[in-house]
Amino acid sequence: MAVFPLEEFSTTIVSNDPKLTLETSFEEHRLEAYEQGYKAGWDDATAAQIEEQSRVAADFARNLQELSFTYHEARSQILGSLKPLFTEMVSKVLPRLAQETLPQSIVDEILSVASDQTSAEFEIVISPGNRPALERLLEDQTALDVNIVEEPTMAEGLAYIRFSETEKQIDLTSVLAGFSQLVEGFFTQQQKVAING
Predict the structure, then answer these.
(1) Which residues in 132-163 are b (16+ Cβ under 10 Å) and which e?
(2) Predicted confidence (pLDDT) per residue in 76-124, tens digit
């Protein structure tokens, strides 16, 4: 005689009890609903993650584009502020520098030729404005036979050196003009780059 009736789990007991079948069917429906809810939640989470990744990628692309525009705008501003400085240098500083260095360039060229041709007679054709500086530099060169000819129509950055059927030209004016064109071309090109992005 058993005091407590124990339930046996080792075998399945088929019951015709409608209440038990109803509970089993309810449990299966509940489990199926749980599975569908879980799957729907997983699908929603996946869709939300994809949407978030798309949003982050779009934000990143927009920020890169804004950064690119900011760089180009800053570069354009800096170049725009440097253009007057370079223009001023090319139009005022470099011509004065060329005028000051032309006499020294002439003397250097004469000394170079005189080292090879000791008896050469030199004729230097220059503008009147360059004569005083050239004469000062030639004062120490007493061994050289130099004749200075002034040509009022010549540019101050231009000189001709003639010796024994040879003529050499020193043209700092063309160098300055070329440099001026380079500077202007550079800023024109940068302006095109800024417009076209």
Answers:
(1) ebbeeebeeeeebebebeeeeebbbbbbbbbb
(2) 778 778 888 877 877 777 777 777 777 778 888 888 877 777 677 888 8
